[in-house]
Amino acid sequence: MQRLWPLSIRSFRLKAGQVGTEVHQLLPPGVVEPGVVRPPFSAQSVDTTKLQSVAAAHNTTNPLVIAAHYAPDGVWNFAGGTSLCGRDAVASFLRRRFETQLEWHVRMALFVSDTHRIAASAHCEWRTAREDGGWYRSVCNEQLTFDDQGLITEHDTTTNDLPIREDERLLSDSKEAFAALAEKHGLLPRSAEMLYPDG
User: Fold this and answer.
1) CATH number of residue 165's parent domain
2) Number of domains the chain is built from
3) Which of 31-35, 61-65, 155-159 has the lowest mean pLDDT?
4) Model pTM score
5) Which of 50, 92, 101, 176 is the most buried (most CB within 10 A)?
6) How far apart are CA 108 and CA 89, in angstroms?
């Protein structure tokens, strides 16, 4: 399948069974259960529900809640050669991420979508668990491919991690703050209407 960017993939698998059906019981209020919104997508379903739900799941920083959005054999590809295969691998990776990236927060903006795919920009801010406690902004391009049940079968990511000062943080509960971030990074005009997963 054609991607928005080239990737060379090195795959690995973790022991099966670490993530089970209990993931569906862990969804907090405000996070749409995976598979509720299914392809074929419309602009309305993507803008107001699907991408919003994915972002909201990541903002819980609960690996099982996030992994629930992936198909059991879903693949998450990273530019640089690594590929996570299956929900177990996704959850294990996220556990390690959130042990080292604290106060993690993401906002996502839609670029374009078709019947089964979404391309989006994601902007994350987080504080390192290292002793210096420095802040970072991760600017990501995301391409998500969904099966007919609305679960992610393939997720392609490229990420740039930029060190920032704490007073340079832009992500907050303010829609205006994220709109300023969109303008600063030259996102598409439609992304000025940001998806705010937590209200």
Assistant:
1) 3.10.450.50
2) 1
3) 31-35
4) 0.74
5) 50
6) 23
